[in-house]
C-alpha cells in the first residue's frame, strides 16, 4: 500500500516512526545533556518532544524524576516499553501530548529539555510553546535547548527557526547563559545548529 504524501509536521514525523526511520534513536542523549547531568544534583526534568525517551531514561537512571511528552503515539509506546525494560517506571512518566498544550502539567521543573522539537513548530504554535516553557521551568531553573537554525545562505532550506526569533520568544523570561553554535548533519542534510543554556528569571 502506498501511503499518502505527508502533509503536516505530525504526519511527516509519525511516518518516520512507522518506517523505523528515526535517526535520533541513540542509546544515550547528546553529550551536552550528559554533561548537565554530571554537573547537577538530581531534580525534576521535563523532556519536550521526548521521542523514545533517551534523555528521560538517562536522567531517571541518575536519580532524576522525569516527565516526557511526545505527540507521536508510537514514540510514547516505545519510550514506555524502554522504561519498563530498564525498571525505571517509578521515576519516569511518558505522556502522549502536544508540547504546545501542556495544561495537564503543573509542578515546575528544575530542568526543561528540548532536543530538536521547538525548531520544527509552526509559527502560530511557538508563542504557546514558549509560554508553557516559562510556566513549567522553576525560577532559577534551566531550559536546555538544541535547535537547527535557519540558514541565511540557503533560503530554500529556511524551514527551521532563526536565532533572533528564538531570542524574542524566550528572552523575557530567560537569561541566555551560554550559546554554542555548530552544524548538524541528518542524513544528507547539514544545517547550522546551536545549543542554548537558558536560566529562568527568579
Ligand atoms: C528530532 S526528534 C528528537 C527526539 C528526542 N528529543 C531525542 O533527542 O531523542 C523531535 C521529537 O519531537 C516530537 N515533536 C515534534 N513536535 C511536537 C509537538 N508539537 N508536540 C509533541 N512532540 C513533538 C517528535 O515527534 C519527535 O519525537
* Class from helix and strand fractions: alpha/beta
Q: Any idea what the shape is?
A: globular
Distance, first to last CA:
54 Å
| Proportion in β-strands | 25-35%
Whole-number average pLDDT?
Answer: 93
Helix content: 25-40%
Low-confidence stretches: none
Largest sheet: 7 strands, mixed
Order of helices and strands: HHEHEHEEHEHEE
Strand tally, please?
A: 7
Small-molecule components bound: S-adenosylmethionine
Summed up, the helix count is 6
Radius of gyration: 16 Å
Strand order of the largest sheet: 3-2-1-4-5-7-6
Write the layout of secondary structure elements.
Elements: H1 9-18, H2 31-39, E1 44-48, H3 54-61, E2 65-70, H4 73-85, E3 92-96, E4 109-115, H5 123-136, E5 137-148, H6 163-170, E6 174-186, E7 189-200
Parallel strand pairs: 1-2, 1-4, 2-3, 4-5
Antiparallel strand pairs: 5-7, 6-7
Residues 9, 13, 24, 49-51, 54, 69-72, 75, 98-100, 115-117, 120-121 line the site of S-adenosylmethionine.
Written description of the protein model:
This protein is an alpha/beta fold. It is 31% helix and 30% strand. The protein has six helices and seven strands, in the order ααβαβαββαβαββ. The chain has helices spanning 9-18, 31-39, 54-61, 73-85, 123-136, 163-170; strands at 44-48, 65-70, 92-96, 109-115, 137-148, 174-186, 189-200. Strands 3-2-1-4-5-7-6 form a seven-stranded mixed sheet, sandwiched between helices. Helix 5 links the parallel strand 4 and strand 5. The radius of gyration is 16 Å and the shape is globular. 33% of the residues are buried.
